[in-house]
Amino acid sequence: MAVSDDLDLALTLEGQGQESQHRSAVRLTLASLIALMMLWRRRSEGRRAIRSMTSEQLRDLDLDVAALRRESDKPFWRG
Question: For 63-73, what is each residue's pLDDT tens digit?
Answer without folding.
Answer: 888 999 999 99
